[in-house]
Amino acid sequence: MGFLDKVFGNDQQRADTRYAGQESATDRAARKRREGHRRSINSAAAQGQAWEDRDRAQDRQGRWYRPAR
Questions:
Q1: Residue 21, CA atoms < 13 Å, CB-side half-sphere
Q2: Residue 66 has pLDDT above 90, yes or no
Q3: Can you tell me the distance from the alpha carbon of 16 to that of 5, in angstroms, rounded to the nearest whole number?
Q4: Which residues have CB under 8 Å from 11's CB, separation 6+?
Q5: Coil, strand or helix: which one is 15?
Q6: How far apart are CA 41 and CA 14, in angstroms?
Q7: Largest Cα span, the chain
């Protein structure tokens, strides 16, 4: 049990009793972390797709030699 839990009590227990119907600070922080992780995955996927689209567009131009970028 941490110092703040000793002073303020367990926020999850407090959310269950005093703040019924609201999520605890710990649950909210965990949800935000998960959302941020998904956001970074989607960003990486979009960057990879953009690279693939550029690469295919360059291949369609028909050049046999592609200079380094």
A1: 0
A2: no
A3: 15
A4: 5, 24, 25, 26
A5: helix
A6: 34
A7: 70
**Which of helix, strand or coil describes residue 43?**
helix
* H-state helical runs in the chain: 3-8, 11-17, 25-60
- What is the per-residue pLDDT for 67? 65
Report the sign of the C-alpha dihedral through residues 50, 52, 53, 59, in that order: positive
N residues, the chain: 69
pLDDT score for 64? 64
Tokens 């050049």 belong to which residue?
A: 63
- What does the pLDDT look like over 24-62, one tens digit per residue? 888 899 999 888 877 778 888 889 999 999 888 887 776
